[in-house]
Design a protein that fits this description.
The protein has 341 residues and is an alpha/beta fold. It contains twelve helices and 16 strands. It folds into two domains: 166 residues, Rossmann fold (3-Layer(aba) Sandwich), CATH 3.40.50; 160 residues, Dihydrodipicolinate Reductase, domain 2 (2-Layer Sandwich), CATH 3.30.360. Helix 1 crosses helix 11 and helix 11 crosses helix 12. The protein binds nicotinamide-adenine-dinucleotide.
């Protein structure tokens, strides 16, 4: 029997997760919510996703826009096994009471505090620890990227200490009211909250992060300095470890993907999801090894990296797969992501 899934909040993350869930062999997308009619609500209808009215939304507004709705959020929650909450930052904590009232499980996003859920989730990092939980939180885009890399490096060589600088995009492409449009804004929280957030997945990891925001919408870029416990044989063995892991995509020098514009152009050429790059992106020329010291850049497509993680979180919650790697393989095959080599 398929797990019945609802998406509450059909924005940047929600619409992508809805498509991803609809493609899974063991899940059924029962419906999505919108607070008001919009082009995204219209797309939901065009895709055949039953539309429900979220929050304080007014069904008559949808009717007048020619978008018939199947009911309210409460109606939808009563028809599913799990709600994936993709509402704006901090709205999830209000929504949790609705899920409790409906007696339904829920998965929250990284804009919520870790305490909202029984556990924070990353498929490569802690799938097994999240099996059977009632409430999970998929960590943010930056935390997901760091946790995935830690899941590759930790088991292979051990991690003494990790310093990362996160160069963050100012806004998502559709956000016309956010900035900066000129300037580089340091985040005056030192270290930034991302390191502690990674520790919700790997409690013992020694990691310190700093962040700054720049005028771009495409991707974040992490500048990583990792002191490993054991010295890798050579640089190719490190590249191979990343290449052999799912959810990583490496660009060779001859591909001339010089930065995030070319990475996202590749994503448009590839056409997965909403022309997304759901994997951590590394450049082979952007990885350096000096003894136990490893430096590498990685780019994170903030709009989509958490999409496969939400799918795996559903599978962990309902114990639909024997282990994390199996779930990841099912998810990635359904989405057409770069297979591990
Ligand atoms: P968004 O603003 O693009 O989408 C949120 C959607 O929720 C909108 O359609 C909005 O109308 C709807 N909504 C508003 N109030 C609601 C309510 N009470 N109930 C249900 N839906 C409601 O936001 P987003 O970027 O998709 O972010 C969603 C979550 O994902 C946040 O926790 C965010 O931190 C997290 N996240 C975002 C990104 C990113 O870069 N966009 C990356 C990773 C995680």
């Amino acid at each position: 029997m398929k797990v019945r899934v609802a998406i509450n909040g059909f924005g940047t993350i929600g619409k992508r997760v809805a498509d991803a869930v609809a493609r899974q062999p063991d899940m059924e997308l029962v419906g999505v919510t919108k607070t008001r009619p919009s082009f995204e609500a219209r797309r939901a209808r065009e895709k055949g996703y039953p539309l429900y009215v979220a929050g304080a939304g007014d069904p008559s507004e949808f009717e007048s826009a020619g978008l018939p709705v199947a009911g309210t959020g409460a109606d939808l929650f009563a028809r599913v096994d799990v709600v994936i909450d993709a509402s704006p930052d901090k709205v999830g904590r209000t929504n949790r009471a609705l899920y409790e009232a409906a007696g339904v499980r829920a998965i929250f996003q990284g804009g919520e505090k870790a305490e909202i859920a029984d556990a924070s989730f990353n498929a490569l990092g802690n799938y097994a620890a999240c099996r059977g939980k009632r409430f999970l939180r998929v960590v943010s885009c930056n935390t997901t990227g760091l946790a995935r890399a830690a899941a590759v490096l930790g088991p292979a060589w051990g991690i003494d200490h990790w310093e990362a600088t996160l160069v963050r995009r100012g806004a998502d492409p559709a956000e016309s009211k956010k900035g900066p449009i000129n300037g580089i804004l340091p985040t005056f929280q030192l270290p930034s909250h991302h390191g502690p957030d990674v520790r919700t997945i790997f409690p013992d990891l020694s990691i310190a992060t700093t962040a700054l925001v720049v005028p771009t919408t495409l991707m974040h870029v992490h500048v990583n300095h990792v002191r490993l416990r054991r010295e890798p044989t050579d640089l190719p063995s490190v590249l191979e470890a990343f290449r052999a892991s799912p959810r990583f995509h490496l660009f060779a020098p001859w591909e001339h993907a010089d930065g995030t514009p070319q990475v996202m152009e590749y994503a448009r050429d590839r056409g997965i999801g909403f022309n997304d790059m759901m994997e951590n992106v590394l450049w082979e020329s952007g990885v350096r090894l000096d003894g136990r010291n490893l430096d590498f850049f990685q780019a994170i497509h903030q709009e989509s990296i958490v999409v496969p993680e939400n799918v795996d979180a559903v599978r962990a919650m309902f114990d639909l797969a024997p282990d994390g790697p199996t779930s990841i393989a099912i998810t990635d095959r359904a989405l057409g992501l770069t297979p591990a080599r």
